[in-house]
Design goal:
The chain is an alpha+beta fold. The chain has helices at residues 3-22, 28-35, 39-51, 91-101, 143-146, 150-157, 164-169, 184-195, 208-217, and strands at residues 55-57, 64-67, 70-71, 78-81, 84-87, 105-110, 117-123, 126-131, 136-139, 158-161, 180-182.
């Protein structure tokens, strides 16, 4: 492995561990000091991490906005775990905290349609509390569209609805073959290969082939899931 690749891995892990400890991302100057690198080098590494889909920056800046599942700004997806409160980027990311931490997680969010509070608790690999009981995670874009602009995808199109009726009444509701409705348990299962090793140094996002295998193993085989 190139020294540079190892440095990129170390910076990635530092960002995630900083988020986990402080519920905020580190700033560019912290990376410069922690790793004895210049601003240009820090910026290059941040751009590498962004293109590898580990983080998203505030456009045109060195500021970390997202390190999936963590959000640097307030969102409707509040997560509590290990006595710390976090914001997740979207409904999927909120549930995915459980796959990442393998620890008890509580999600406090809202129905995207009417704003009614939603609470989900996850423990030992499953949702042990879902209120309201019909709560679903709605993915309003196809997977092939997610990374066209991941900031707007996360922020606007991966949400909770309190029930299928509230999904159908929402402006976000898309034709059924172009969107997905999942239970919290399904989203947890979906998250495993993507999130479970995020806090390890050599984490890499699963390949397209591995993701397709995982979708198929979950029975997610329709046209929607072709990536
Ligand atoms: Zn609602």
């Amino acid at each position: 492995m190139q020294t540079n690749d190892l440095l990129i891995q170390r910076v990635r892990l530092y960002i995630f561990e900083h988020f986990l400890k402080h519920a905020q991302p580190p700033v560019c100057e912290q990376l410069m000091n922690e790793f004895s690198i210049s601003r240009d080098e820090a910026m290059e590494i941040l751009r590498e991490l962004e293109s590898a889909r580990h983080i998203a920056l505030v456009q045109g800046t060195a500021r970390i906005l997202m390190a999936f599942p963590f959000s640097a700004i307030a969102t409707p997806f509040r997560v509590t775990a290990r006595g710390q409160a976090y914001f997740a980027n979207c409904a999927w990311d909120a549930v995915a905290f459980h796959a990442m931490l393998r620890d008890d997680v509580r999600v406090d969010s809202f129905c995207h349609h009417c704003g009614t509070p939603i609470t989900i608790e996850l423990r030992d690999g499953r949702a042990t509390r879902v209120e309201p009981a019909e709560t679903l995670v709605y993915l309003a874009l196809r997977p092939t569209q997610w990374w066209e602009n991941i900031v707007t995808t996360c922020s606007n199109t991966m949400v909770f609805f309190a029930s299928p009726q509230h999904r159908d009444a929402s402006d976000l509701c898309a034709p059924t073959d172009q969107a997905a409705s999942l239970t919290p348990d399904q989203v947890h299962a979906l998250s495993g290969p993507i999130y479970s090793r995020k806090l390890e140094l050599d984490y890499a996002r699963p390949t397209r082939e591995k993701l397709l295998d995982h979708f198929a193993a979950m029975g997610l085989t329709g046209d929607y899931w072709k990536i």
